[in-house]
Amino acid sequence: MKILVLNAGSSSQKSCLYDLKDALPDLPPEPVWEAMVDWTHHQGFASVKVKTLHGKTLQTEIEATSRPQVITYMLETLWNGEDAVIKHPSEIDLVGHRVVHGGAIYRQSIIINAEVKAAIAQLADFAPVHNPANLEGITTAEKIFGDIPQIAVFDTAFHAHLPPAAYTYAIPTKYTNQGIRRYGFHGISHQYCRDRAAQILNHPIADLRLITCHLGNGCSLAAIRNGQSIDTTMGFTPLEGLVMGSRSGSIDAGILIHLLRQPDMDINKLDHILNSESGLLGISEISGDMRSIFQAIAEGNPQAQLAFDVYVHSLRSHIGSMLASLGGLDVLVFTAGVGENSAAVRATACEGFEFLGLKIDLEKNNQRMLDVDIAAADSSVRILVIHTQEDWEIARECWNLQ
Which long-range contacts (CB under 8 A, 24 or more apart) does 340-343 make? Predict the structure, then answer.
C-alpha cells in the first residue's frame, strides 16, 4: 500500500511517500520519496527539494504564482523525470493530511468528504495561517489523484479528551460558547512520542504517566495518563504556554491591553510582535534559533544568556504544572529540534526535579543519540530522547482507517 503524506505549514510543505506491505512495521520505515517546499528563501519563488530512498536528489527553484501550482509541481516529481518512484498517480492508495485545527468537532482522524472540508474551512477562523494551507493541499490532491481516499489527521485531536477544568478559560461563558477554549497543538508529535516511549521501555502505555516536551521553534508539553492527554501548554492558539523561538508564550493579558493603548499599535502589529518578534528572538535580539543563542552565550552576550535562562525557567515551570496534573511522573520525553539536539537544554530542564528521584546521566545525555533513555540507572523517572516522526504517525493513522 502506497500512502502519500502532505504536511502543509504556513511557509513550507513537507511531503513523503511510504510503501507498506502486509502489516505496519514496528519501527518507522524510510520513505521511498521525500519532498520539501520552502516559500521563504526568495520572494515570489519556491525552493523545491526532492530526495528518494535510492539517494537521488533534485533541488530547484520555481516561480511561486500559487501554492496549488507549486504543490502540483512537487507531486509530479513522483512519476516524472529520472528520479520518479512510481509510474502513474493511480498507484497512490491513500493521501494523509496534517490539519492543524479540528476544533471540538474532530476528536480523531477522519476520511475527508465535503462536510469535513467545509469544517476545515470554517475552523480557519481559529487557525487562519494553517487551515487554509491544509485545505489547499487537500483540493490539489483531489485534482491530481481523483477519488482515492484522503484522510485528515488533526493536530488538535490528541488533546480532545482534556477535562473541562483543563480546557476552560475563566472568561464569560458567552465567549466560551463561541468556541474559545484550550485546544492544544503538536498532538501528532505527542501521540507518536507516547507510543514510541512505551515501545522503548517495553511497558504498556496505560501504565505510564508521561510528560512529552516538544521543543522546536514552537514548543509545547503534554501530560499523558492512561494513554490520553489530560493537560497541555498550548491553548486556543499555539501562542500560549512555553517561551518559544519567536513566540512569547504565556504573558500577562494586561500587557496586551497596555500595548493596544499605544498610539502606534494595532491588532496586526501586535499579532506580529507576539508571534514573530518575541521569545528567544525578542529577548536576545539575535535569533530565535537555540544554536545561535548558545554561540552568543559563548561570546559573552548577556542578552543571549538571559534568553536561555527565561526559556529554561518557563520550561521548568510548565513541567511543574504538568506534574501537578499527573500526580507524579514515570517518563519525561524530549523531542523536536531543540529537544532532540540540545543536551544543555535537557540537562538544565531536569535540574530541580531531583525530589522526584529524577536523575539524568550526563554522559549519555551528551552522546547525541536518539530514541534512547538518558536517565541514570538509579533514576526513578526514565528520561527519553525521541526523534519525532509526525509524517509516519499520519501514515499510521491512514493505515488504521483504511
Answer: 340/370, 340/385, 340/386, 340/387, 340/388, 341/368, 342/215, 342/290, 342/294, 343/368
Q: Residue 283 is which amino acid?
A: I
The whole-angstrom separation of Cα 134 and Cα 10 is 9
Every domain of the chain with CATH number 3.30.420.40 lies at 2-154, 203-390
Residue 77 confidence class, pLDDT cut points 50, 70, 90: confident
On the 0-12 / 13-18 / 19+ scale of CB atoms within 10 A, 305 is middle
Measured distance CA(313)–CA(153) in Å, rounded: 33
Distance, first Cα to last Cα, the chain: 10
What's the confidence (pLDDT) of residue 276?
Answer: 92
Kindly report the CA angle at 168 between 163 and 170, in degrees rounded to 5?
Answer: 145
Q: What is the pLDDT of residue 399?
A: 94
| CB-neighbour burial class of residue 242 (10 A; exposed 0-12, middle 13-18, buried 19+) | buried
Q: What CA–CA distances, in Å, run from 175 to 88, 171, 208, 239?
A: 50, 7, 36, 19
Give the integer Cα–Cα distance in Å for 187 and 191.
6
Using a cut of 0.90, tell me whether the model's pTM lies above it.
Answer: yes
DSSP character at residue 327: T
In words, the CATH class of domain 203-390 is alpha beta
Sequential DSSP letters for 68-86: HHHHHHHHHTTTSSTT-S-
| Catalytic annotation, residues | 155
Q: Cell 490539519, residue? A: 99
pLDDT value at residue 54: 78
Q: Is the pLDDT of residue 337 over 70?
A: yes
DSSP, collapsed to helix, strand or coil, labels residue 338 as helix
Q: Which three cell numbers stand for residue 373?
A: 533513555
* Cβ-based neighbours of 363, under 8 Å, separated by 6 or more: none
Query: How sure is the predictor about 53, in pLDDT bands with cuts at 50, 70 and 90?
Result: confident
CATH code of 2-154, in short, is: 3.30.420.40
* CA gap 134, 131 in Å, rounded: 5
Mean of the per-residue pLDDT values of the chain: 92
Does the pLDDT at position 289 exceed 90? yes
Tell how far CA 125 is from the center of its chain.
20
Dist CA 213 CA 225 (whole Å): 15
